[in-house]
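Table S5 (text form). Sequence records supplied for joint modeling of the two-component complex.
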Amino acid sequence: MTEIDVKQRILAANEAAAAEVRARYRGDGTLVINLISSPGSGKTTLLEKTVARLGGRLRLAAIEGDIATERDADRLRAAGIPARQILTGGACHLDARQVQGALADAAFPPLDVLLIENVGNLICPTSYDLGEDLKVALLSVAEGDDKPFKYPAIFSRARVTVITKVDLLPHVEFDIAAVKEQVSVLNPAGRLLATSARSGEGMAEWCGLLEELLAAKRAART
Amino acid sequence: MTEIDVKQRILAANEAAAAEVRARYRGDGTLVINLISSPGSGKTTLLEKTVARLGGRLRLAAIEGDIATERDADRLRAAGIPARQILTGGACHLDARQVQGALADAAFPPLDVLLIENVGNLICPTSYDLGEDLKVALLSVAEGDDKPFKYPAIFSRARVTVITKVDLLPHVEFDIAAVKEQVSVLNPAGRLLATSARSGEGMAEWCGLLEELLAAKRAART
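The corresponding structure-token record, covering 444 residues in total, follows.
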């Protein structure tokens, strides 16, 4: 069996598990989000602030992917929602079977939105469908405005790109218009939001978008 | 052949190529550095500033790894040194055979220091020896001070950790002492530097360390 055969077999097994996750949440209309970014772009912080704004009226839960440490799930539980950590033990992305295992172990109550935070990596998670409704790519302004063209796969596939840490814009070189241009080339239908968890800028738009996507999924069911 | 067999075969082939790169540069005493970090931690900028400080007295060249775009090699050539881009076409790390191919194509003149900038990824590059003398891990203060324990493999193996963008410290939550503590647990012999390419802080120490390592390699040869 060649290297390519092995990769294809792994991806086929992942697709089967992803289809099961998707079927499970199609029935009850839970919106499932797969958040992907570099380490330190602010995924966990975005989720903490999302819980603060939406936790009172939507039923949220989180699955947190990491190489090591339970830190992120602890942070989401402290924010007030059920959360399950997946430790990949070195692997550079989550896969759908790990998500199935986490869902079985966590036994979350009925949900409106399931938030899956992938391992911090702008490359490997892109290839693995977790059964989500959409991928969300995060890009912090501290990372530089050349990243969409340098990491085109994720910015092509993410229905939403969230620029984070815009409170740092006065202190870094980052041209939001350049990022919009790159994302519009890679993904003409993609949405782009500019946010700061610290100042709150863009957080109402982000939370509004989640509610809009949830309503659209539920409307499509009927 | 199982998935594990394939992975082991790939790593064995990589080790063989890495040994050839290492032997090539043992003979002429060229110091070879493998820089690893998240996307946007400032690897290319650190190299540009290194060229500005050391390019006058050391013979430098760069191999730049990326998924897509020739941008980084262009930046290093503009800084004044020969540079060769390796486009991985989606792969999440460089491997030693790609480095061999780039060296054959580039036909660099005799060098003092070969700077290899890996693909922006804090996970996958860690497993692939490129024939370097040492790995250098970069961590920007915008990424957060919890990263060494979250990505322990690279911070265990990097002989040097360079904290970058310390000019942003007044604007972010980042405790350098916490990072030092984590790195000292993972890698008791590791060196740690705090730098800002923008303000120049720590750049003399970084360049001095490269010269010290180069001198040590040459002294060991004799």
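Note: The first helix of chain B runs from residue 3 to 27.
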